[in-house]
Amino acid sequence: MTGQKMESASQKKYELPPLPYAPDALEPHISREQLSLHHDKHHQAYVTGANADLEKLEKARQEGTEVDMKALLKDLSFNIGGHILHTRFWPSMAPAGKGGGGTPGGALADRIDREWGSFDRFKAEFTKAAASAEGSGWAALAYCTMTDRPMIMQIEKHNTNVYPTFQILMVLDVWEHAYYIDYRNNRGQFIDAFWNVVNWDAVNKRFENL
Ligand code: MN
Question: Could you count the other beta carbons within 10 Å of the beta carbon of residue 70?
């Protein structure tokens, strides 16, 4: 029992990654207040939540007690999903005109053209996926290595409608907590703003490293 406890105490935990730019770097499209709150409070809450869920499992193992497995794993999926998606979201953006905005280049540009016919058609479909995500959710550009095709994924909460194991190249958070300070209830304005800060170089690098 003691040995198990020591091992458990040394297990790695999830950690909040720092923003890859200053919190005001995405202004005026995303304000310092909006970005700081989103990263420091909301993302942190999923990290804290995932670690707490794992600790509940570890504690029950050590004490030989039961947990409500269904409820706990549902919560763990939600929290890990939130952590992973936010961790991918921050580097999917860069300051406007300094890596953010414009259109993709490199191999990704060709692949988007082949799949959607044009960048504008891709942008329109992605925008619609983001705008129509029900309740709290995300739009993502994912990649299927079975068919070698990029696909748009619309995620509800952090973990529903996910295509399991598909690589996520780029992701946009459309939870209200992502935009409410800057855009109130106008999700469409926030999505328009996102296109000014999307970091296509980073997305293209992810694609080339698949
Ligand atoms: Mn969020």
Answer: 8
How far is Cα 96 from Cα 204, in angstroms, rounded to an integer?
Answer: 17
Q: Is 59 helix (H, G, I), strand (E, B) or coil?
A: helix
Q: How far is ligand 1, taken at its centre, from the CA of residue 209, in Å?
A: 26
Ligand 1 centroid–CA 43 distance in Å is 6
Alpha carbon of 178 to ligand 1 centroid (Å): 5
Task: Tell how far the Cα of 202 is from the centroid of ligand 1, in angstroms.
Answer: 20
3-state helix, strand, coil in the chain (%, to 5): 55, 15, 35
Domain ranges of the chain: 106-208
pLDDT digits (tens, 9 = 90+) for 180-210: 999 999 999 999 999 999 999 999 999 999 9
Amino acid at 8: S
Parallel/antiparallel/unpaired status of strands 137-144 and 149-156? antiparallel
Ion ligand 1 — residues with CB < 5 Å? 42, 173, 175, 178
Answering whether pTM is above 0.85, one says yes
CATH classification for the domain delimited by 106-208, as one of 3.80.30.20, 3.40.630.30, 3.40.50.720, 3.55.40.20: 3.55.40.20
